[in-house]
Specification:
This protein is α/β, with parallel strands linked by helices. It contains 11 helices and 10 strands. Strands 1, 2, 3, 4, 5, 6, 7, 8, 9 and 10 form a 10-stranded mixed beta sheet that branches. Strand 2, helix 1 and strand 3 form a beta-alpha-beta unit. Helix 6 crosses helix 7 and helix 9 runs parallel beside helix 11. The N and C termini lie far apart (about 60 Å).
Length: about 325
């Protein structure tokens, strides 16, 4: 059964060759919102893959721009399905696409990112040859708004377990990964209540459920621009804290759980805490937003320092480094 029946939320479905047989091996899901000028490039990156046994499900999540017109030229390809719905958010839209998917493997792709050439073929080969793994994660390259790479390929290598996830994110986007649909359904898909970190929460559940492998081969070109949700990490701080402490009980050893908590708190402070402090100290930040960010920072880290005093030395050291870096940059301005 689909997560949302056809017609609900005013959804308009445009299907092409629904009787495709046999079912494709890979289902690619693109949730589309406010990137009409970029979604064509995302679709082109799928069409240019050397692996061709796929279907592409594009869901317009109530985007107010011309997304439908941007996708229309590609609908002559029978492998592509296009749907429109009222805005439900990225997580719910991804979940709907996964529910519609006919393939045994799921590739998530944001509408402003690009699959790296050859991304599908090596990931499919890995999962086909390693049935004990529920997910394989590849390397990412960051690109700017014009599609120009501004970094080398970045990615981990080796098995990703819970401790690896607590030490820091193993990926920049779920688009780096290929998932087994059966395992996604088994762990309950993405949680729409924690936007921005729903993909990290999913990876924690998959790591508890099965095995994840990271392979340093090109998988995704991740477009970094001002519209990225991860560019507003201060708003994600409470959700990051929630995900970390939601999954700590999965580590059974008390000593290992304490070590994982310390690692996770330090990563959270560097990932979301530093961005929150930068936002607070930015002179252009509106007073109301500054107050909300400060309250979020104090509430999250104040509570965790009281609960885990061993985090205090690392927190003080990180603050000292943050202050020194700000002072050094100010001296060059």
């Amino acid at each position: 059964m689909l997560p949302f029946p056809n017609g609900i939320f005013g959804a308009r479905v445009i299907l092409h060759d629904q009787n495709m047989s046999p079912a494709p091996s890979v289902s690619i899901v693109i949730p589309a919102y406010k990137h009409a000028h970029l979604i064509g490039a995302a679709i082109e990156s799928v069409l240019s893959q050397s692996f061709t046994d796929w279907e592409l499900i594009v869901i317009n999540d109530g985007s107010p721009d011309g997304t439908g017109g941007a996708v229309a030229p590609y609908l002559s390809d029978p492998r592509i399905r296009y749907l429109e719905q009222e805005n439900q958010g990225q997580s719910a839209t991804r979940n709907r696409g996964i529910g519609m998917a006919q393939g045994q493997w799921i590739q998530l792709l944001d509408d402003d990112d690009l699959l790296a050439p050859g991304s599908l073929v090596w990931k499919v080969e890995f999962l086909a040859q390693n049935p004990l793994y529920c997910c394989v994660v590849g390397a990412v390259q960051f690109i700017d708004g014009e599609g120009v790479g501004d970094s080398d390929w970045q990615g981990k290598e080796g098995e990703i377990g819970l401790r690896t996830l607590f030490r820091g994110s193993a990926f920049a986007s779920p688009g780096q990964a290929l998932f087994r649909k059966a395992d996604l359904l088994a762990v309950g898909l993405l949680d729409p209540s924690i936007p921005g970190v729903d993909d990290a929460d999913l990876m924690f559940r998959l790591a508890t459920h099965g095995r994840i492998m990271a392979v340093p081969k090109p998988a995704l070109l991740y477009r970094w621009h001002g519209g990225n949700a991860s560019a507003e990490r201060y708003r994600m701080l409470p959700a990051v804290d929630l995900v970390i402490h939601r999954h700590l009980p999965a580590i059974r050893s008390r000593r290992a759980r304490l070590a994982a908590r310390l690692e996770a708190l330090r990563y959270m402070h560097r990932y979301a805490g530093f961005n929150t402090l930068k936002f607070i100290l930015n002179p252009s930040t509106p007073p109301g937003e500054r107050k909300r960010a400060l309250c979020a920072y104090c509430r999250v880290f104040g509570r965790r320092l009281l609960q885990c005093p061993l985090f205090l030395p690392a927190w003080c050291l990180d603050l000292a480094r943050f202050t020194a870096r700000r002072w050094r940059y100010a001296g060059h301005s």
